[in-house]
Amino acid sequence: MKLVVNGRFISRRMTGVDRFALEVLRAVAGLKANEDGVVAGIDAEILLALEQSSADLDIGIPVRRAGRFSGQLWEQIDLPRYRDAGALMLSLCNTAPVFGRRQVVVVHDAATVAFPSAFSVAFRWWYRFLIPILGRTAKKILTVSEFSANEIASKFGIPSEKISVVVEGGEHILRVDPDANAVIRFGLTERPFVLAVSSMAAHKNFRLVLEALSELQDPPFDVAIAGGSNSRVFGAAGALKSERIKWLGYVSDAELRALYESASCFVFPSLYEGFGIPPLEAMNCGCPVLAANAASIPEVCGDAALYFDPNDASQLAALLMRVTREASLRAELTARGYERARRFSWENAARQVLQACREVA
How many whole angstroms separate alpha carbon 209 and alpha carbon 198? Predict the structure, then answer.
């Protein structure tokens, strides 16, 4: 089977969707290197636009460049034109050629319909146009949770029998050594700290963490925020000033691992997730998880997280006080997290994706 992977996502700033694609391809390359039977007879290559960097793709899968365009034009025109005749095309990041009938497409969620305010007008209308068409033309639609499968079927009108679920992973965070000096450099050694990773998208609901902190008079912990603040997203909470808040800016994977391993807990307040990789990263690093009881999050985290209403800052504030004070609770959540994280891996994700491709081929 000739398999051509849509490489449009390569070299752009990494999101969770891009992480999925890159880690699945790394796992495929690992299976190939180990001569695993699941890759027997599969001849895979990654197709890129001419100007794309392939620095992130030194993983053992051949790379080929072709075409005249870039971005969406490359994906819609050049990608189907330059793939080998008879090859099956695999697109891992939501978008794919409209007229590529012999293809498998991974659609991660229906956030552009469920939370339209989180996206630009052009972006959400393109997805509302594209994904239903892909649902009709592609041989198979893959997604990353049962929650997303139901969302995609209902919001994009794609037949449920055409949709299959594959897993994601979080063990990639263990591939890098923790930055031993990160906690000192960020000024997080004086008190326990709670870790959160911010996002500019409104449905990530990061403002709830700041609102919860504002309800506590003198919390015995700091809040470390990886990412940036934005008043348009966080509202008045984004302007909250407190000596307990440490704005870290963007961090490397090595710094992030060190933060996970040193934090009292990790908070994941999202209102909408197709899967949600950060809680699994935290669990792999032994960090207790507090998570919103919303969307796919309970499906992923199971009994390894403490849940809160994503619209109730007081509830989150109470949980933060409890988990930072109770060492036995943190130890229990850590043990549950390790066990839960073992159920997910990028190798399993790669196996499921390859199996879906075999079924189509």
Answer: 10
What does the block give as tokens for 9?
């996502």
Q: What is the pLDDT of residue 196?
A: 94
User: Six-digit token pair at 52?
Assistant: 């794309």
> Domains plus CATH for the chain?
2-169+345-360 (3.40.50.2000), 172-341 (3.40.50.2000)
Q: How distant is the alpha carbon of residue 358 from its chain centre?
A: 25
137: Cβ–Cβ under 8 A, 6 or more apart, which residues?
Answer: 98, 99, 100, 101, 103
Give the bridge partners for 4, in sequence order.
45, 89
> Which has more pLDDT, 141 or 203?
141
- Residue 282 is encoded by which pair of tokens? 């935290």
Mean pLDDT over each residue of the chain, to the nearest integer: 93
Retrieve residue 106's tokens.
């991974």
Phi, psi at 359, each rounded to 5°? -60, -40
**Predicted local distance difference test score (pLDDT) of residue 56:** 65
CA–CA gap between residue 195 and residue 236 (Å, rounded): 20
**81 is written with which tokens?**
């034109």
Token representation of residue 97 = 């050629």
Cα–Cα distance for residue pair 5/13, rounded to 1 Å? 19
Spacing of C-alpha 57 from chain mean position = 19
Q: What are phi and psi of 72, to 5 degrees?
A: -65, -40
**Residue 273, burial from CB neighbour count under 10 angstroms (0-12, 13-18, 19+):** buried
